[in-house]
Specification:
The structure holds 2 protein chains of 2 kinds. By secondary structure, chain A is mainly alpha-helical. Chain A contains 3 helices and no strands. In chain A, helix 2 packs antiparallel against helix 3. By secondary structure, chain B is mainly α. Chain B folds into 2 domains: 103 residues, NADH-ubiquinone/plastoquinone oxidoreductase chain 6, subunit NuoJ (Four Helix Bundle (Hemerythrin (Met), subunit A), Up-down Bundle), CATH 1.20.120.1200; 34 residues. The model of chain B has no long low-confidence stretch (mean pLDDT 85). The chains are: A mainly alpha, B mainly alpha. The interface between A and B is large, with 74 and 84 residues.
């Protein structure tokens, strides 16, 4: 069996890479891609938690949470990509720093 | 044997995730993202949950990636958007974000190292349950978790309506001047 430390390290390094992408990139498409990476890091933890459960109570709660996160990611990407298309039609670029019309 | 495969998979996942984040071309980033998703599904296989691995390949590497690629095909302008992206992202501007993320990573790694070794080893070497079958998941989903199914169906429906509405209003903005001319 794989030691649980390694899975925790994999998950948290993937999460850190994703959060670096969200903070550093200014293209809206890349921000959405980084959000996908962060969701994947969380999902690894859920599936591992359902696997390392005690033998007496074999429960599938982690995988059911995986299904919920999958649905969430699909709907988030649908709404996010339609916002990307909308932004590109109005501004002709995807720089999120230029989205400051609400300030003036 | 299992450990070696896991280490190789984890290395592939982390390298391709880094390449995804630092790529300038959106198409290259999406291809690296597909590799990341396939690696994550291999980790699910190694953890014994083959249903989650199959769903990961079908939904993430299939459906979501097709959405991304279609949007990129609509918006990508070749060398012009590459030049824009090089202007938007380079390492000198993202040094603060890198420092913050490495601080977060160090804290989390320290917390994992801080946990007692006995707890982790007992978790890793426990008599782990036999692999969860699809039948068990289905019984759970339509038994105690039936409210969750309804809520996720409502979420998908609302996302569908939102996506249609946003795309439609963007289209009507373009059409409006034509209406005035007519």
């Amino acid at each position: 069996m794989i030691p649980i430390n390694w899975i925790l390290f994999l998950s948290l390094s993937l999460f850190s890479i994703g959060i670096f992408g969200v903070l550093a990139r200014r293209n809206l498409l890349f921000v959405l891609i980084s959000l996908e990476l962060m969701l994947n890091a969380v999902v690894i933890l859920f599936v591992a938690a359902s696997r390392y459960h005690e033998a007496s109570v074999a429960n599938s709660d982690g995988q059911i949470m995986y299904l919920l996160v999958l649905t969430l990611a699909a709907s988030e990407i649908a709404v996010g990509l339609s916002l990307v298309i909308h932004m590109y039609r109005q501004h002709h670029h995807l720089d999120i720093d230029k989205l400051n019309k609400l300030r003036d | 044997m299992l450990d070696t495969i896991f280490i190789i998979t984890a290395a592939v996942i982390l390298i391709s995730a880094l390449l995804t984040i630092t790529a300038h071309n959106v198409v290259h980033a999406l291809l690296y993202l597909v590799i990341t998703m396939l690696g994550v599904s291999l980790v699910f296989f190694l953890l014994g949950s083959s249903f989650a691995a199959a769903l990961q390949i079908i939904v993430y590497a299939g459906a979501i990636m097709v959405l991304f690629i279609f949007v990129t095909m609509m918006l990508h302008q070749g060398e012009k958007s590459l030049a824009q992206e090089r202007h938007l992202f380079h390492f000198s501007t993202s040094i603060t974000a890198f420092i913050l993320c490495s601080i977060l990573f160090c804290e989390l790694a320290y917390l994992i190292l801080l946990t007692p070794v006995e707890t982790l080893s007992s978790l890793s070497q426990a008599q782990y349950s036999p692999a969860i079958t699809v039948k068990q998941i289905g019984i759970q989903l339509y038994g105690p978790y039936s409210l969750l199914v309804v809520i996720s169906a409502l979420m998908l429906l609302s996302a569908l309506i939102t996506a249609i509405h946003i795309s439609k209003s963007a289209a009507s903005i373009k059409i409006k001047p034509e209406d005035n001319n007519l």
